[in-house]
Structures are given as structure tokens and as C-alpha cells.
Amino acid sequence: xxxxxxxxxxxxxRDLGGxxxxxxxxxxxxxxxxxxxxxxxxxxxxxxxxxxxxNTAVDLRYGDERRLEPSRFLDxxxxxxxxxxxxxxxxxxxxxxxxxxxxxAATARTYLMENYRNYPFLYAHGxxxxxxxxxxxxxxxxxxxxxxxxxxxxxxxxxxxxxVPRDTVFEDYLLTNNYWxxxxxxxxxxxxxxxxxxxxxxxxxxxxxxxxxEERCGxxxxxxxxxxxxxxxxxxxxxxxxxx
Length: 244
Hints:
The chain is an alpha/beta fold. It has one domain: Protein-Tyrosine Phosphatase, Chain A (Alpha-Beta Complex), CATH 3.90.190. A five-stranded mixed beta sheet has the order 1-2-5-3-4. Helix 2 links the parallel strand 3 and strand 4. The longest helix is centred in the middle third of the chain and has 19 residues.
């Protein structure tokens, strides 16, 4: 089964199926997907995605991103769009406020590290809803703009909840570096190191999210229970729905 779904309008649409868990089960194919923005899907892409059986899109973009680039699935008869990103950004957009400076790359790295530390908690409602929809047997896409940061963290948490080893979770996260086409989102004057700091999936970024979870909750399991509100029954339903 092919992990990357070839589409014309987006580059980072991937199936999370096939990964093996600690217990020896495998994540079901054609059940959980992660993607960059769904605003640029072509008509043919929409047909392809619907043909995968997808019926829910968890949109983790900010309110201004959703307004500027509306999802192609809004008001669609098969795919329900759940707009679960923050309506307001928690701070200024790094890209919008970018100014050329010698320390721009380091500033970008610090900005991303702090964001990743906050994602598990700022997006707790979105991540909980994502897992509950999966537990209900829905076929779900989780996405943001690049499919790297907010969606990447969500995908990592789903795989972790299913019992996929941490090394494999990171391997999946880093695949964005192979697939995502930035589509000209860089700003004028941005040097290569700054571009890499902003637009690359880096192990240290996702590690910052897991470190924040472990500092505040002790374990991912406790985070799932206490922050996302997923009890043993809910987690059992998630695993039944998503594992072979």
C-alpha cells in the first residue's frame, strides 16, 4: 500500500497505515491521513480523496488561514470539515513579521521550539476530537497549512496513542522533508538557514512537544487521559477502530 497519495494540488498528503505497534498490531491503511492545506485541491484531487472513503477533515489552521484559503471540503456532502484550529493566533506570525537579521535563523528555531511545546495543550480539543472521531470509525484527515507542525504533532500523538514506537513516530514526522512543496511561502531576503529553520521538520521540534508533555504530565498515557480526556474505554475504541 502506498503511503504518499499523489495529488495535483497538495504535496504532503499521506496515509498513516502500516506502522507496527509495540504489541505487534499494525495501523490500518486508508483510515488515518495527514496533509498540508486542503484549499488547493483540484476537482480531481477531491474525487481521489473521497474515493479513499474520507468523511472527516480536522482543520487545525488559524482563523485567518481558513478565511484566506478556504477548505475545498466546506459544505461537501461526504467530508465534514471540523475547524478546530485557534480562531486567533497566540502571537504574531513569524513569517508576517519577518525581518532580515543575522540572528533570524536562531529566532525562527526558538519560535518553533516554543510553539511545539505549546501545541499539545493549545490544541488539546482538536487532538481529542480527532481521536474520538477515529474511535467512532470515521476516516479522518488531520491537516494544517504545511502538514508539518500542528498536524504533525497531532499525527504523532495519534500514533503514540495506538502504541507505535517513538522512533517510528519520528520517522513519519520527518517524511514531510521528502514531500512538502513550500509553494513560495518564503519571504524575500530569507537566507537558507532561516528557511530550513522554519520550513523543515526537525527531530528537536517534535521532541519539544513530547518533552513538554512529559514535564507536565509524566507520560503520554497520562496526557491522553488527563488533558485529552480519553479514558480506557475511549482509547480501547480508538485502537479497535484503527489497528489490525
